[in-house]
Each structure stands twice: as structure tokens, then as C-alpha cells.
Amino acid sequence: MPSLLRRRYHVDKQYIKDTFKCIADCDMCGLCTVFKGKDPELAHEDYISGKREYMDVSGDYK
What total of structural domains would you count in the chain? Predict the structure, then answer.
């Protein structure tokens, strides 16, 4: 079972990386503003670690 949890961690982390890619054009992007100055991986840390569901974490940034 630990390997399954470890796999989910990596899959969830990669999902966040792929979904919220930094395009290095802050004036056109706005992701940092949406996540209140946090890196998307840090903003979704509870989701990646399995503590909370994706939609719950996303609700923190509406």
C-alpha cells in the first residue's frame, strides 16, 4: 500500500505542475495572483499530500 500512496503523490504533484505551468510572463498570466503569491505546488500542498480534496483546496483561492 505505501507504494500506491507514493504513486498518487507523484501523480497529483505532476497534475498540478502540468495544469498550472509558469509561462514566465507575469503580466499576462496571473497565476501567482490567483494563488495569493504562492507557487501552485505550495498552494495545493494539502491536495498533493492527500490531506484534502482538489476542489476543497481550489475553493481557498476563489
Answer: 1
Q: What is the pLDDT along the chain (62 residues), one digit of tens a residue?
A: 457 667 889 999 999 999 998 888 777 888 888 999 899 999 999 999 999 999 999 999 98
Range of the domain at 7: 2-59
Going by C-alpha positions, the residue among 54, 51, 52 that lies closest to residue 15 is: 54
Which residue in this structure is represented by grid cell 490567483? 34
Q: Which ranges constitute the DSSP H helices of 1-62?
A: 2-19, 26-29, 31-34, 40-43, 45-48, 54-59
DSSP code, position 52:
S
Q: What is the pTM of this model?
A: 0.79
Cα–Cα distance measured from residue 41 to residue 47, given in angstroms and rounded to the nearest whole number: 9
